[in-house]
Specification:
The chain contains 9 helices and no strands. With 204 residues, the chain is an all-alpha fold.
Length: 204
C-alpha cells in the first residue's frame, strides 16, 4: 500500500521535474517559446476533466473507460506538442496517461502508436510543412501549436487512414480552443495543399 502511494508521489515529482528541466533548456531561446503554452498544455490536467471528478478521485473502473475520439485526439495533440521540447517514448506516454486518468488499454496503445509514428517520421512531417508553406515563412518561427496540429492531421490521414475532412476539421477545432483563430487558415492552407498533392481532394 505504502509502496503504491510512494510510486504515485514519485511520478508526480518526476513530472514536475521534467517541466522544470524544460524551462531550464529554453534558456536563451525563451523569447522564441511561449512558456505559458507549455504549462497550460503539457503540464496541466486535461480541461475535459475540469468539471468532472478530479483524477485522484476517479475509480479504476472510470479510468479504464474508453475516451471519446475527440478527447483522445486532444490528448494526442498535447503529447505531440510536448515533443517539440522533450523526447517522449512509450514509458512517458504511460506516465502521462496515469497522471490524466487514462487507463483504457486501447486508448494508451493509440497514443503510443501516435508517438511512435511521430518519432519515426518527424523529418517527413516537417518536409510536408516546408514544401507547402510560403517561401517567406521561416519554419523555426512558425506557430508551434499550428505545426503540432498539422503533423497530427497528417499522421491521422496518412498512417491511420482517418478521412481527411474529419481530421482537418477536428484539428482546426482544437486550434480554436488553444490558439488564435487566425492560425486556422494556416493549418487549413497547408493541409489543403497536402491532400491535393496526395490526390485525396475532391474539393475542400
Amino acid at each position: 500500500m505504502n509502496k503504491n502511494i510512494d510510486e504515485k508521489e514519485e511520478t508526480k515529482v518526476t513530472k514536475q521535474e521534467e517541466y522544470n528541466q524544460i524551462l531550464e533548456l529554453f534558456g536563451e531561446k525563451a523569447e522564441e517559446i511561449d512558456l505559458n503554452e507549455v504549462q497550460s498544455i503539457y503540464i496541466r490536467k486535461n480541461p475535459f476533466t475540469d468539471n468532472l471528478k478530479k483524477v485522484e478521485e476517479m475509480t479504476e473502473e472510470e479510468k479504464k473507460k474508453g475516451l471519446s475520439r475527440r478527447r483522445l485526439r486532444e490528448e494526442a495533440f498535447k503529447i505531440l506538442f510536448s515533443m517539440q521540447f522533450i523526447k517522449v517514448n512509450e514509458q512517458k506516454v504511460e506516465i502521462y496517461c496515469d497522471i490524466n486518468g487514462i487507463g483504457n488499454k486501447e486508448d494508451i496503445a493509440y497514443l503510443v502508436n501516435i508517438v511512435d509514428i511521430y518519432n519515426e517520421n518527424n523529418k517527413y512531417l516537417e518536409s510536408i510543412i516546408e514544401e507547402n508553406k510560403k517561401d517567406t515563412w521561416d519554419y523555426s518561427r512558425l506557430d508551434k501549436i499550428a505545426i503540432t496540429l498539422i503533423k497530427l492531421a497528417i499522421i491521422e490521414i496518412e498512417y491511420l487512414e482517418i478521412p481527411f475532412k474529419i481530421s482537418i476539421n477536428e484539428c482546426i477545432n482544437i486550434c480554436k480552443k488553444y490558439n488564435e483563430e487566425k492560425n486556422t487558415k494556416f493549418i487549413n492552407g497547408i493541409l489543403a495543399n497536402y491532400v491535393k498533392i496526395k490526390g485525396l481532394d475532391n474539393g475542400i
